[in-house]
Write a structure and sequence with these properties.
Layout lengths: L1 H10 L6 E3 L7 E3 L3 H9 L22 H17 L3 H6 L8 E6 L6 H5 L6 E6 L13 H12 L4 E7 L3 H8 L8 H6 L3 H10 L5 H20 L3 H8 L4 E8 L4 E7 L14 E7 L1
Parallel strand pairs: 3-4, 3-5, 5-6
Antiparallel strand pairs: 1-2, 6-7, 7-8
Helix pairs in contact: 1-9, 9-10
């Protein structure tokens, strides 16, 4: 796996600059190009306008965010639900998604928006840093969702989506051995193998460059962790189920996709990963 990270490191021409967020400890935020911010209006992206609260210098009418949600819902009903009524009526009976998606909880990387999933097409769970813990780590919401998706819904594809500027990965890469037992740090410890491999293969790079590499390496570790579940491994072996990695660079709107090659990968023998069908969209 180390050679894979080193190869990615050599190809890394530049990394997104990270700046320390004011008044926060061990938190980083990505600097976003101004042209990206300007382009949002052209893309027709709606945003919450927030709340105007009276203070000593100015006053304004408070905007109710739920009024905005109401308008969005009514717009959805008119332009989506009613126009695709047959599709939504069919979902009353059952769901039969082709995809199980594991994505980050980050508000900037909604899979349904990015990849255009319609209701009923993807069974989805989102967690901090889009991690899949191995079987031996015990129960979690993520493997409970996996069990339902694979055993009950019998999805054909599992897609793990990571992304640029991931705060969970930055927290993971910042961690040192300590007694800190916060929920976040306890959770991202599931990606410790990715952190160690990144540091070993790319210790000559800056912290932000290492984070970018670890964002992708953690996806690969999670792909291997999927194979620690016998009911996943068996279906992958029989080619009834395929597992994929995806990486969304939201600063440049580029999506990378790859597929685990089961025959060349192993959770034993040093946890070897081989991928195929690598694609870059955008």
């Amino acid at each position: 796996m180390a050679w894979f990270i080193r190869t990615k490191a050599r190809l890394l021409v530049s990394a997104t600059r990270l700046v320390r967020a004011p008044d926060l400890t061990d938190h980083y935020v990505c600097s976003v190009p101004r042209k990206w911010l300007r382009s949002k209006a052209a893309l027709g992206l709606q945003e919450f306008t927030g709340s105007k609260v009276e203070n000593g210098n100015n006053s304004g009418e408070r905007l109710d965010l739920f009024d905005e949600l109401k308008q969005r819902f009514l717009s959805f009903k008119k332009h989506k639900y009613l126009e695709e009524l047959d599709h939504f009526q069919s979902l009353k009976e059952a769901q039969s998604p082709k995809f199980m998606v594991i994505a980050c909880a980050d508000s900037r990387v909604c899979p349904s928006t990015i990849l255009g999933f319609r209701p009923g097409e993807a069974f989805m769970i989102r967690n901090v840093a889009n991690l899949v813990p191995p079987l031996e780590n015990g129960p979690s919401e993520t493997n409970a969702a996996l069990e339902f998706a694979v055993k009950t819904l019998q999805v054909e594809n599992i897609l793990i989506i990571g992304h640029s500027c991931c705060g969970g990965i930055q927290t993971l890469m910042s961690m040192r051995d300590s007694a800190d037992s916060s929920f976040i740090k306890s959770w991202v410890t599931n990606g410790k193998v990715a952190k160690l491999r990144t540091e070993a293969a790319a210790n000559h790079l800056s912290f932000d460059q290492q984070c970018r590499l670890c964002e992708k390496e953690s996806i690969n570790i999670s792909l291997l962790n999927l194979l620690t579940y016998p009911w996943i491994k068996e279906r992958v072996k029989k080619e009834l189920l395929f597992v994929h990695g995806g990486y969304y660079d939201f600063l440049n709107c580029i999506f990378e996709k790859w597929t685990l090659d089961f025959k060349g990968s192993s959770v034993e023998e040093g946890r070897r990963l081989l991928v195929k069908d690598e694609q870059i969209w955008g």
